[in-house]
Amino acid sequence: MAQLAQDTSGRGGRFESGASSTGPRASEPRRVTVVMTLFNVSKVVPKESLVELTMKASLYWVEPSLVGVRPGPVPEGAAQGLWKPDFEINNGVALNASEEPPLVWNASGLVRMAIRFSGTVFNPMDVRDFPFDRHRVCIHAGPVYSRA
Length: 148
Description:
Residues 26-136 form the Neurotransmitter-gated ion-channel ligand-binding domain. By secondary structure, the protein is mainly β. The chain is 3% helix and 46% strand.
């Protein structure tokens, strides 16, 4: 079972998954650091609890099979079997996601995968103090849930 744990250091969240990969520690859970960057909030509709935005999630984890590989694109042979977290914005309503190819970030096997999201998220807002109300955009991110 995967979960997103809150990181109080301010550097992002940890996404832990029991999914496996090839390599010396394939049976161990992966720890994934998530860094969210919000680029644009273009439309806020308080009555419908909707916010249009553009953002990027950068996910970092250590891939044991890539330790010692030079920084840059993941080698073609390794990219096919590369473990990747199943990550989504859970409160996305009409959200498009485009994934960048994973990169080897450093020789210790750190991998970065970036996903750019653009569209609408569900964001309940309290408008009882209108016109003096304030709002926070909450992004619920984590593992891909099955949707029946």
